[in-house]
């Protein structure tokens, strides 16, 4: 059974392989996405370690001079996706978007290194990536935490990777729609519109893109200029974990300065994360930096923070929260609490289960001593695959597959979980 699943997962990775990068799935997402690639490299690492390194090297070959790593790289023209390179108009030699995505590459590269430690070529590849990843982490702290709070903000829902989460509803309401040029969505041709964000949300997504484009994609100015500025515990949990892992990797490679700075970023982040804790829900909350208030929304972002490797009592509370969710949903971890306002079992990040999120929560929980909870998350993940195939996401109440099919990072997570 496991062997068959692994074979199917490998075939999906090969099918979506475009040589030096993978597409998340044929049709719906025809380019390279940032955090998809980093997590996909983990899948490759079990059967083609060279290809795994290449995936991340290609991503970093398109890093901006200021350190930002864009969320999409438009390697080849393809009008099957909106918004394409002409909408972003970032002026990069190979077109890219102008915003970023959850920085999971630091974590992934440490894993790759551990899996190829005895190979001198891998050591060299890690040595070359190390300063680039560190430059990205520095960019985050410089441009997305100008007050030095220890936590960074996202300035567009797409940066979170959890595009239409209930977490963003109130903040997105404040984003205007006047002046948004007419557009034609393509996602709803490839996937069921009932599983995707609404047109109203898309108008606000595009307003933000136009706004940043009018500021010439000067990333040093965008944080202050954006009406949408949110501190997401999941996003920060990922950054903290990557900084910690980069510190370990830098130690191994004798790069003591990068090690010290990365460790300092991670420690400051872990302390600051505490300010997002909510006793009521037993999880972390987002902070709306534009209003200064917490966003009382029971989303998976507050559980994904477990990836940072939390102190025992916090990890225990998150495990307890997952346990309570399991009493309501047939499959954990739903991206939104089924009992909370805004839950929608099939609409993208407003309820469905995502395997990448499950993987990261489980990984963090194991490292904080919550093995049983982590095991139940992984078991549910594999049951979803067995019944629904390698989908983009799944209905937590029925297990029905949703969004795109033959999905790369879903397949990569299956290989990672079973290997
Ligand atoms: C926008 C590729 C990406 C993921 C995101 C997911 C979705 C894009 C979209 O697909 O976002 O970046 O067009 O819907 O939300 O997490 O990286 O798989």
UniProtKB/TrEMBL annotation:
GO BP annotations, alphabetical order: oligosaccharide metabolic process; protein N-linked glycosylation
Keywords: Glycosidase, Hydrolase
InterPro entries per record: 6-hairpin_glycosidase_sf (IPR008928), 6hp_glycosidase-like_sf (IPR012341), Glycoside_hydrolase_63 (IPR004888), MGH1-like_GH (IPR054491)
Record-annotated Mannosylglycerate hydrolase MGH1-like glycoside hydrolase domain positions: 29-410
Record has Zinc-finger as a keyword: no
Pfam families recorded: MGH1-like_GH
Keyword Magnesium assigned: no
Membership in a protein family: Belongs to the glycosyl hydrolase 63 family.
Name of the protein in its database record: Trehalase
Organism, scientific name: Albidovulum inexpectatum
